[in-house]
Amino acid sequence: MALRWSCWMSSLSSSNKEISRKQRRRFGVESLKRSSKAASGGLVKDSKKELSRILRTESAIRGVEKKANSSSNKQLWPKALLQALDDAIKRCRFHTALQIFALLRKQYWYEPRCQTYAKLLMMLGKCRQPEEASVLFETMLSEGLKPTVDVYTALVSAYGQSGRLDQAFSTVEDMKSVVDCEPDVYTYSVLISCCAKFRRFDLIEHVLVEMSYLDIQCNSVTYNSIIDGYGKAGMFEQMDNALNDMIENDNCHPDVFTLNTFVGAYGNAGQIDKMEKWYDEFQLMGIQPDITTFNMMIKSYGKAGMYKKMKSVTDFMERRFFTPTVVTYNTVIEVFGKAGEIEKMDQHFLKMKHLGVKPNSITYCSLVSAYSKAGRIDRVDSIMRHVENSDVILDTPFFNCIISAYGQAGDIEKMRELFLAMRERKCEPDSITFACMIQAYNAQGMAENAQKLENMMISAKNSLGAKLIGC
């Protein structure tokens, strides 16, 4: 696939090859070179901190792949390798985590553990990789491990988070046939959360009936999952009823997660009065807000154009010694950016950096979108320089945003360069990437190039479909 993309890009413009090389050296490769010496020195000699740092970089991933295929790397330092695996799992970088795990399994000191598999399965669920989860589960069985409740619950999550509810329910049924591995309240809570995510509230009723039959009491996590599902679906009456059921249940009580669900649900719906009412109600229950509560309120006030109230929340946070996080600043920057308040947006970005809060890809996406909308492509260039001089981890949404910005500005060459840089950083293009580029080509009257890209996108989808059918 990578070869087809490279050939296609070459056919569009031969002169673009040299430009893209320079751009990649400037944009993507320089940061990789900084770790090349460390990566070539071997993992065994590196300290734990150095190894973890190296394994985070894209160049080191290639090193891991080489070592995974080598028979001479079976005596690596256990603590460092396990720390690197844990780091990759926490960052939800599933490609890296699976590569490191493959290397881990080759070590002479390796012992299979259900806990490791449970962590990996939970990560794959968050990343929506059900196929990888199935393969990993089979690998665990091949190593002679008996799945625990935690492992099965993680597998239920991996299927359910991807919308494969039939497989999730089937996994729960499999648990019932395994000795000492019956599903517990957390398994059912995960299942309910997945059903709520895809608005299958009819299935939730089925799960609750089954829990009652098995004499499994709902806990706060169960109720919060149901309340969250109703809230995101805008089913406020059912959400309120679920809260009443929760309060009447002697085994659990509303908490800050419940509060945040109500604030977020009514705030996102633009029902500010009700959001404020429930905020006060939870205060009377003795439930105190946290930083997430305030971030949600800032976003809700911002969407409603209530900037004075938004500022009152940030002022309250300062008085109560709540330290703003990157999410807080990202929310404020996004609000002002979408409103076209470029000057205010810039002020908060500068304040964010001044206070030592490190911007991430979401920050830069908001800035680029705002500048692009305002026709300030020169400021987009400035953001690119910020990114090049930072160690921020870029992702596909960022590249989509920046590609769209240059495409709308008619800078086709820069758009192509960024597409190649995207591939260099191993950020896979998605349908949004292709749509942005096709739109840019059509706007510039480059219908032939747009058609080539559309054909390639269709071919990629067909290839993926054939691969899945063959699995």
From TrEMBL:
InterPro entries: PPR5-like, PPR_rpt, TPR-like_helical_dom_sf. This is Pentatricopeptide repeat-containing protein. PPR repeats lie at residues 113-147, 148-178, 184-218, 219-254, 255-289, 290-324, 325-359, 360-394, 395-429. Belongs to the PPR family. P subfamily. It comes from the Eukaryota. Keywords: Repeat.
